[in-house]
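CHAIN AND CONFORMATION:

***
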Amino acid sequence: MVSVQSVYNTVKDLANKDQKGFVTPLVFSNFARIAQLNIFNEMFEDIYNGKRLRRMNADGAAHLSSVTRSKSDLSALRRKVDLLKDSSAGVFEKPHDFSFVVSCSLPGAQGKAKTNIHLLYDEEKINQLLASNLSAPTKSYPVALISENIEVFPSSISKVVLTYLRTPLSPSYQVDTMEVGGVPVELFNESASQDFELPSHYEQELVAEIAKMIGVNLRDSEVYK
């Protein structure tokens, strides 16, 4: 994972190289959260574009594949949980840290393959399936509507296994202030801080993303560039 201390020190040096502005830990932490989410969303974009390239036979092979690389980078955020239906609402509530669904299935007996649930995001398509005599969902071919919550058909299904990507924890740079010779000095508090939840090779990109935002904040085009 990328060290929040390393990124902060680099960004601070960039912004203060001409004494044009000091980046406080609070400002940095706010920008760091947005920068991480920007890169997180770019990974999904890379997967989408990579799949498009695959259909055109233009994506790289093995470790050179943009799809494989992005999926590997996101693997640390992958979670699998058993969900029970909320009987009063008739839906499955998403986990509090839910970001993106990977797959959904019915619990399988030990040693047997699980039944995958077909995922849909369009309520109109679900209604068409439910109204059909030929393609209505069954326990052998279940369907889920992914919206604010997760609704699974047929409605008799009460338990599912959800694999999803969680939202990364917000990076935070925390300090303790102490006086040295009557001068207040800020010291990095590692235990109270939170590193970026991105692989180490994203450090340069994080610095660039945060520097852009700080450059706009300080109205310093050199930092932005």
User: Anything to note?
Assistant: The first strand starts at residue 78 and ends at 84. The first helix runs from residue 4 to 15. Strands lie at 78-84, 98-106, 115-116, 118-120, 143-146, 150-153, 159-166, 175-180, 183-188.
